[in-house]
Amino acid sequence: MKIITVEAGSIAAEVGLRPGDELLEINGRHVLDHIDFRFHEEDSSLSLKVARNGESTIYDIEKDDGEKLGVEFEEMKVLSCGNDCIFCFVDQNPSGLRKQLYFRDGDYRLSFMYGNYTTMTNAGPAILQRIVDQRLSPQYISVHVTDYAVRQRLMGLKKDDRILNKIRFLHDHGIDMHTQIVLCPGINDGSVLERTVDDIYAFRKHIVSLAVVPVGLTDHRFGLAALQKVDREYAHRLLSTVEGWQRRFRNEIKRAFVYPSDEFYLVAEREVPPARSYDGFPQVENGVGLVRTFLEDFRQQSRGFPRQVESRRLTLVTAELPSPIIEGHVHPVLNRIGGLDVRLETVPNVLYGKSVTVAGLLSGKCLYSHLQGKDNGDGILLPPDVLNADGLFLDGETLPRVQERLGVPVMVYDGQWDEVFRWINLIGRNSDSRNLVPPLTPASSLIQNNKT
């Protein structure tokens, strides 16, 4: 592992480590990646084998338990996915996006670090043992289906990956897991889905949750397998089935265990369940209970909304799927505030196509095509998650560039309405009010979790 920075005044600086040095071993063990290093760094006695200019040096260090050495390493190489799933969202990306969006990651380390879902297909005995030894818990596992013949068709397996054996190994060694099924109508539903749920439920002691999410389909499926989209009737039937399982599991283990994603409720035009139904929201980042948490948070924050703001006209942007939620719960509350005139704009997705209706996949191109040339008032408020950790839209556009092209200040809602009202009171005070809205400066990240 190549060192890129050494913190001034740190232990690493005191012993003479430098940027460019390569850490080979700690206490006689090869160091594979950041997690490996952090795991061994906790010890009070360390013996570091470091290479510099082709020569190796041993550094013996005594320190307090948990004390950091003060080094940072270059980014680790991410393991790619070992499958060829017929529903893979990466294969449905349009051309011209950022390079990272065409990479299929399947790295158990990112699962532990960031909650990325992996299929565990490329996890052999050594990886499974490392997860256990270093307690890389929880793991987020895409199971999809447990019937091997259907797994072959759905995931492009060349041989049996023995997913249930891997889950059993992690389960028996106390590793917690969150699992998901991407549901493809006519393939892994019906009796096949029922078997999958039962197989996963058998490991309920350490499988904390199972999410069922609908397959995501774009207009860029050229040469790919024909798949059906989840429609209103299908969503109704699926919800009825899952709710039956939830009643059974609550009677047995006092939690629902299996949770349909919000998209099923929105497509079925049904109200999302109350907060208590989600058992602490174990999969909110996977779109399970996200609407409910948003509504609960909005209700709490709305109690502190101002009664009056400076006279402003605001364009509130959303996408087709969440539009009824925003129109029914958010839009009228904002328009009751004196001085505030909010217009709701439901922006279609011209990047991925009309079948993609979630707000998080809106791009700069989507905003331009729908909003350019319109009277957008004094500012535009965008939904959360349209930017990655580096401040980029899916098509590489930036917030300052969007502001420039649309001609008004633009803000991305970050969960804090007091910041939104501060921004509302700032915009429009001078002729170049766009300068009052700084671009986002988010923390850097290893890789964006490409959510569908």
Kindly describe this structure.
- It is a single chain.
- The protein is of the alpha/beta class and 452 residues long.
- It has three domains: 71 residues, Pdz3 Domain, CATH 2.30.42.10; 197 residues, pyruvate-formate lyase- activating enzyme; 133 residues, Rossmann fold, CATH 3.40.50.
- Helices cover 31% and strands 17% of the residues.
- The chain is built from 14 helices and 14 strands.
- The strands form four sheets. Strands 3-2-4-5 form a four-stranded antiparallel beta sheet, with helices on one face.
- A hairpin with a 2-residue loop joins strand 4 and strand 5.
- Helix 10 packs parallel to helix 11.
- The longest helix is centred in the middle third of the chain and has 22 residues.
How would you summarize the topology of this molecule?
Elements: E1 3-6, H1 11-15, E2 22-26, E3 29-30, H2 34-41, E4 45-52, E5 55-62, E6 71-73, H3 108-114, H4 125-133, E7 139-142, H5 148-155, H6 163-172, E8 177-183, H7 190-201, E9 207-214, H8 232-253, E10 258-260, H9 262-267, H10 290-302, E11 308-318, H11 323-335, E12 338-346, H12 364-371, E13 379-382, H13 399-406, E14 410-412, H14 417-426
Parallel strand pairs: 7-8, 8-9, 9-10, 11-12, 11-13, 13-14
Antiparallel strand pairs: 1-6, 2-3, 2-4, 4-5
